[in-house]
Design brief:
Length: 643
């Protein structure tokens, strides 16, 4: 399959509108909601290689509420008679901006109207907990919605879920009917004291219990009593099933918990199990489980957990009770090691071999190394060799970083037991520019048969000064020439006057590329500024050059103003306006980044100011420009005319 088929690419023309501000004074704000630009529509223009033209074919439109939430998404196709609405999505939000309704219209009825297919409803309490989750599908025969599943929730004051009710849909009554519900309870410390379930009897149209567990807890959070019930359909009520009494004692500085079962015959508690917890100087915790047997105690399980001086778990051993020897016998063991920064240096797992009477490796053993910046630079895998009963080298993963902490290479090796050396089997060099932005990477696999490297993927990126990808090229490997050949390319245009945080965008992530495209996951949130154009190309072998594939054009407008919090800052001034040779930037009291943009969003001037200063604008073409002043706590925007 070709790596790129009918690739959808996004692109946008010039900026349509900027936020309205005074010529001399700029809006000051903390909230990013002030002056944000809305993405209103995206137009797609596929390329026709026959006519050598881009032709508009489809568009998406986005509608928002006053809080910037997307409330509708519309999809159009262009026909001879104009725009044809082919599908849409509708969203609704509550007063806290929680999404409470989603409705999807993916197709049309015979009369041309849009037909819904699915609907989702949600509700939330004042604390933000979800109290409703319902799903519907459109039933064309009834011309109405039919439910699929609905769940209702309730919570206590601490956010613990104490009620959950599940509904199914009744076709006969065309309404929801209860299936089952759960009732739980928690004390003020978060310990669960009630767990119960009820089922609905459709024949008798009544609710019946299923199971119920009740726990009593002391002031220390210890469970003191447990009672278990099941539903008795003969008496139509709860029936006692079992009870447990927990008694806590301290014996020889050891915490001991006795668990007693209720004996309904003599109506007394009888010892059932015993749990001993032994702590040794915060470095070892031993837990032993016993069961009552013949007037004494017989072991069930035992665990030993060791800790280093930083509290990291470095040892975990599990034991089972051996009835033949009346002693503990090892079952599983895990070992760990950490450095002073908490980085894991060792992880190894073992199981006890009854036949050999020793610990043997179970799975893998790992050793790690880190550099001074905390980056993992080495991971070694070991496997267990049964013949010699020891760990042997298996694989290693090497990560390489430069002096600027850029991740410049990843390498994978296999250990060759015959040669007694590491053999590299996979590598991925990664390249960065002087600004430490990623500009490309290659991935290779070693082919043993041909005794040479085979390329898997290669990407080259050209970032702008903010790290946005303005050009991206993807390559395929040519098996004949054993070299890279061009496959696809993306060219991006951006308006640097607006950062990503300055944008109002659709709620759902937009995919502008085909799922078969290597750029499928390149979304708007991959950029730090406003994307205005992304042009997609495929490499045409016949003409030995790039051939356009398609364009998406983005149209922004307006701003949503809400939650504006004015700053108690001195207003920064830009004057005169209009200007010819110089502008004065006044009232600068903090380190300020001044940027000037053309109407197409191109950065034409950038300067760091430490105080009020005259800035030369000589050499700039006459016309309209937009400026941005940004400090640590303040951002201002405005328009500037150069004469």
């Amino acid at each position: 399959m070709k790596k790129l088929t009918n690739t959808l690419f996004l692109i946008c023309a010039t900026l349509l509108a900027f936020a309205q501000v005074d010529n001399n004074l700029s809006t000051k704000f903390k909230s990013a909601q002030a002056g944000r630009m809305r993405l209103d529509s995206i137009h797609y223009e596929p390329y026709n290689p026959t006519t050598l033209e881009f032709k508009l074919s489809s568009k998406q439109e986005f509608i928002y509420d006053t809080n910037g939430n997307e409330i509708e998404k519309r999809y159009y196709g262009l026909t001879n008679s104009g725009w044809d609405l082919s599908r849409k999505e509708v969203y609704e939000y509550d007063s806290n901006n929680n999404l409470i309704t989603e409705i999807y219209y993916p197709s049309k009825n015979a009369d041309g109207s849009l037909r819904p297919s699915s609907k989702f409803e949600y509700a939330f309490d004042d604390a933000g907990n979800k109290t409703l989750d319902a799903e519907y599908f459109w039933y064309p025969d009834l011309n109405s919605w039919a439910g699929i599943e609905k769940v209702e929730y309730e919570y206590d004051l601490y956010g613990n879920k104490i009620f959950e009710k599940l509904y199914g849909w009744s076709i006969s009554s065309n309404d929801w009917w209860g299936v089952m519900y759960l009732e739980d309870n928690y004390d003020s410390s978060g310990v669960q004291t009630l767990e119960s379930r009820y089922n609905f009897d459709q024949v008798g149209k009544v609710w019946h219990g299923d199971y119920k567990n009740i726990k009593n807890v002391d002031s220390n959070g210890n469970v003191t009593e447990e009672y278990m019930y099941i539903w008795n359909f003969v008496i139509d009520d709860w029936e006692f099933l079992a009870g447990f009494n927990h008694v806590y004692e301290t014996i020889n500085n050891q915490k001991v918990e006795f668990i007693q079962n209720w004996n309904s015959t003599d109506s007394t508690w009888h010892n059932s199990r015993k749990v001993e917890i032994i702590a040794q100087a915060d470095t070892l915790l031993i837990t032993i489980n016993w069961k009552a047997s013949g007037g004494g105690w017989q072991g069930i399980s035992k665990s030993e957990i060791g800790y280093d001086s930083f509290g990291n778990e470095i040892l975990n051993i599990s034991y089972n009770w051996d009835t033949d020897s009346s002693d503990w016998i090892g079952y599983q063991k895990s070992e760990y090691a950490f450095d002073a920064k908490g980085n894991k240096l060792l992880e190894a797992h073992y199981r006890w071999s009854v036949d050999l009477n020793i610990w043997v490796g179970d799975g893998s053993k790992y050793e790690f190394e880190f550099n001074s910046n905390g980056n993992q630079v080495l991971l070694i895998y070991y496997s267990w060799l049964n013949d010699s009963n020891n760990w042997i080298l298996s694989q290693k993963l090497v990560d390489v970083y430069d002096d600027n902490d850029n991740h410049i290479a990843i390498e994978r090796y296999n250990w060759d037991r015959n040669l007694g050396e590491w053999i590299m089997i996979w590598k991925r060099p990664q390249y960065f520019n002087s600004q430490n932005y990623l500009i490309g990477w290659e991935e290779f696999t070693w082919e043993t048969d041909s005794n040479r490297w085979k390329g898997n993927d290669k990407y080259e990126f050209e970032p702008d000064e903010n790290g946005n990808m303005v050009v991206g090229i993807d390559y395929n490997w040519d098996k004949t020439t054993c070299d890279w050949i061009e496959s696809s390319k993306v060219e991006t245009q951006l308006n640097l006057a607006y950062s990503y945080e300055d944008l109002i965008l659709p709620t759902s992530p937009l995919a502008f590329f085909s799922i078969f495209s290597p750029w499928y996951y390149q979304r708007l949130n991959s950029y730090r500024n406003m994307v205005t154009q992304l042009v997609g190309y495929n490499w045409n072998k016949d003409i030995n050059d790039w051939q356009p594939d398609g364009i998406h054009k983005f149209f922004y407008s307006g701003d949503v103003n809400n939650n504006i919090i004015q700053l108690d800052e001195t207003e920064m001034l830009v004057y005169p306006n209009p200007a010819s040779d110089f502008i004065t930037i006044g009232n600068i009291s903090h380190s300020t980044h001044f940027q000037l943009f053309s109407v197409t969003g191109k950065l034409v001037l950038s300067k760091i100011l430490e105080s009020s200063e005259d800035v030369s604008v000589q050499g700039l073409k006459p016309g309209m420009y937009f400026y941005r002043l940004e400090t640590k706590n303040q951002q201002q925007k405005g328009k500037l005319v150069i004469q």
